[in-house]
Amino acid sequence: MKHVIDKWGKSIFVYLILMIVFPFVMPDEYYRSVGIIIGLQAIVAIGLCLVMGLAGQISLGQAAFWGIGAYTSAVLTTKYGLPVGVGLIASAIVPALFAFILGRAIAGLQGYYLAMATLAFGYIVQIGISEWDSVTGGASGMISIPKITFFGDSELSMYYLIWGVVTCVLLFSLNLLNSRVGRAFRAIHKSEIAATSMGINVRKFKLNAFVVSGMFAGISGGLYAHYIGILDPQPFGLHESIKFLTMVVIGGMTSIWGALVGTLLIGSISEGLVLMSEVIPGLQGDIDTIVFGGILVLIVMFMPEGLVPRIRTAYEKAQAKKRKASTVETQTVERKATT
Fold it and tell me: For this UniProt entry, which segments traverse the membrane (predicted)?
């Protein structure tokens, strides 16, 4: 953790300040609820970043793990009367198990085949949720899911709970990035052949990333279920998986901070489209899918490394140029002094 503080201390400080003051700058309950939803999405996006940006895998089924986590906690607490805490723990464990099973099954797949396999898994999960009426409520969904009351049930307490979880996930991922495991992930992302020649068990590390990603999505899903209070299969399909994918790509697949920034941008755009649709009826429907698809295409074409890595590279070049100019100025002054 010390390495994380040394490397990202300023960024973490700014993040914490913005996270803490947001509910007071935007005291309206609507904006707090938007902040909560963005926080839930950020947990999923950070996990997806570990899979795509570090382990080099493509996943189009992240919303499926989100849905498994949501329904696991909802079923256990609503139908079986278990405490919310138990449901939330199960919402992390069950998706992780599904991710482990799926990861073992598709361990040998790459590229388009891997994407298609995760896409198929997403469809299977959504259809399963829709058809398993006796457990999930089917297409009608579930209602009366108990609220989380660990710190009260107000919008403000829920906001800080969700973003507290985001902070834990963020710090865990940054620490992982700077560990031996993170270095192995980056080696795999650059070249699996080279990583194998260095003695890295590629399949093992890919599976670990996939399981951690599924666990993060499940935790977010469980929190989502208890925050919303009702569930139906619709939010857990391909549309949401594409949204998560766009968040990671726009922010920068190789950057944990990029996943967070991408989530904030896409979440803000999504809410902006909702507000605009109330004024312009033509924007209602699946316009957000078109917008996100367009953003994804533009980012891949003109900024494939993502927003945060591009900004960091520009900043480092500016600093290098500034240091060079300072060195030249110092040398000029020294020459004048000697003459």
Answer: 12-31, 43-68, 80-102, 111-129, 158-177, 207-230, 242-266, 287-304
**Could you give the CA distance from residue 263 to residue 50 in angstroms, rounded to a whole number?**
15
Asked if the structure places residue 74 within a domain, the reply is yes
Beta bridge pairs of residue 152: 150
Establish if 294 belongs to a structural domain: no
Sign of the alpha-carbon torsion through 59, 61, 65, 67: positive
pLDDT of residue 286: 67
> If you write DSSP's letter for every residue of 14-31 in order, what string do you get?
HHHHHHHHHHHHS-SHHH
Q: Residue 251 CB: number of other CB atoms within 10 A?
A: 28
- E strands along 123-171, which residues? none
For 75-84, 205-214, 294-303, which range has the lowest pLDDT when averaged over its residues? 294-303
Q: Per residue in 272-295, is it b (16+ CB within 10 Å) or e — as a string?
A: ebeeeeeeeeebeeeebeebbeeb
pLDDT of residue 95: 95
Q: Is 74 exposed, middle or buried (0-12, 13-18, 19+ CB in 10 A)?
A: buried
Residue 289 in domain: no
Q: Are 43 and 219 in contact (CB under 8 A)?
A: yes
Say yes or no to pLDDT of 214 above 90: yes
Look at residues 221, 283, 242, 203 and name the one whose alpha carbon lies nearest to residue 122: 242
Share of the chain above pLDDT 90, in %: 37
Q: End-to-end alpha-carbon separation of the chain, Å?
A: 52
CA–CA distance, 169 with 47 (Å, rounded to integer): 8
Q: Which of 68-82, 179-193, 219-233, 248-262 has the lowest mean pLDDT?
A: 179-193
Confidence (pTM): 0.91
- What backbone torsions phi and psi does residue 142 show, to the nearest 5 degrees? -125, 145
**What is the rounded CA–CA span in Å between residue 78 and residue 137?**
11
Cβ partners under 8 Å of residue 163, min gap 6: 19, 35, 39
DSSP assignments along 24-51, one per residue = HHS-SHHHHHHHHHHHHHHHHHHHHHII
Q: Which domain holds residue 39?
A: 2-237
